[in-house]
Automatic annotation (TrEMBL):
It comes from Dietzia timorensis. One of its GO terms (biological process) is response to antibiotic. SMART domains: AAA (SM00382). InterPro entries: AAA+_ATPase (IPR003593), ABC_transporter-like_ATP-bd (IPR003439), ABC_transporter-like_CS (IPR017871), ABC_transporter_ATP-binding (IPR050763), DrrA1/2-like_C (IPR025302), P-loop_NTPase (IPR027417). This is Putative ABC transporter ATP-binding protein YhaQ. Keywords: Antibiotic resistance, ATP-binding, Nucleotide-binding, Transport. Pfam families: ABC_tran, DrrA1-3_C. One of its GO terms (cellular component) is plasma membrane.
Length: 291
């Protein structure tokens, strides 16, 4: 597990991140936040590209160093590949930098290119590929060293739906092998689809962090009541009413006792068609904590 502890970083007078702490356990962790929230700065500190003003990064309980970070795969925001180098050569080159044997890196590189439908482009120059395809090569480079941990800065941006799916499949596979993944994204529907955990930054601070389950249970759970009759009466039922429209009401109930009381009153007034908890989606949680 990776732990970020109290990281702080300023650029001149700009406080990019301030005393942020969160864990990246096994599974996939979505790292979200508005423009300038501090995601890239945090990822760069995790990778040792930037040094923090304060705080530390732990990997399985030990402070990270160059050697530990050699086991981390990274897809930086500024996609740092060589435009005038052949695709496969480039993947093999990075594989060797990560200590892989050349032949093994070549074998894995070809397999990765096949997965991304790029096998026939392996001897082409990188800059002859479309941007989306260059991004697929960039992810191949991030995983060619067989990383223990993956840090991916906006891996899905600019990809078409097929490329998103093949990227997502690849990440799930690494995840299943026990590689924790931290990825940033502005695409909340993807975060919703892929993530077990979520960390939300807002203006350089962590405003929510944890498993999907714990985050969904931490706020107040809303309820939807639908009856075979008008539910306008809930306005006088001394509960917090978020919305009423005809036969349906959305309610913010304090606890089980309040839910039981409301349901009892509903039954005494007609037939209850639905009385259900509305568990928030990760996107809703994101919007709520980022206000
Ligand atoms: N090298 C730098 N020099 C000066 N300011 C910087 C530098 N890098 C980041 N910042 C500032 O730090 C803050 C956080 O930026 P960062 O790139 O980490 O945010 P982000 O969450 O990745 O944003 P985005 O979603 O727009 O990529 C911003 O105010 C940014 O302008």
């Amino acid at each position: 597990m990776l732990s970020v502890q109290g990281l702080t970083k300023s650029f001149g007078n700009t406080r990019a991140v301030q005393d942020i702490s969160f864990d990246v356990p096994a599974g996939m962790t979505g790292f979200v936040g508005g423009n300038g929230a501090g995601k890239t700065t945090t990822m760069r500190m995790i990778m040792g590209v930037l040094s923090p003003d304060a705080g530390q990064v732990l990997w399985n309980g030990s402070p990270t160093n160059r050697e530990i970070r050699r086991g981390f795969g990274y897809m930086p925001e500024e996609r740092g590949l060589y435009p005038r180098q052949k695709v496969l050569e480039q993947i093999v080159y990075f594989g060797k930098l990560f200590g892989r044997d050349g032949a093994a890196a070549k074998r894995d590189g070809i397999e990765l290119l096949e997965r991304f439908n790029l096998a026939d482009r392996q001897d082409d120059m990188l800059d002859s590929l479309s941007l989306g395809n260059q991004q697929r090569v960039q992810i191949a480079v991030a995983v060619i060293g067989r990383p223990d941990f993956l840090v991916l800065d906006e891996p899905f941006s600019g990809l078409d739906p097929d490329a998103v799916d093949s990227m997502a499949d690849l990440l799930r596979e690494y995840n299943a092998r026990g590689v924790p993944i931290l990825f940033s994204s502005h695409q909340l529907e993807l975060v919703e689809r892929l993530c077990d955990n979520l960390t939300v930054l807002s203006r350089g601070r962590v405003v929510a962090s944890g498993s999907r389950e714990s985050l969904q249970r931490s706020g107040r759970i809303r309820h939807r009541l639908r009856m075979n009759t008008d539910v306008g009466w809930v306005r006088d039922a001394q509960v917090s009413v978020l919305d009423v429209a005809g036969d349906t009401a959305i309610l913010d109930l304090a606890d089980q006792a309040e839910a039981d009381r409301l349901l009892g009153e509903a039954i005494s007034r007609g037939s209850v068609v639905e009385f259900a908890e509305l568990v928030p989606s990760l996107s809703e949680i994101y919007r709520e904590v980022s206000k």
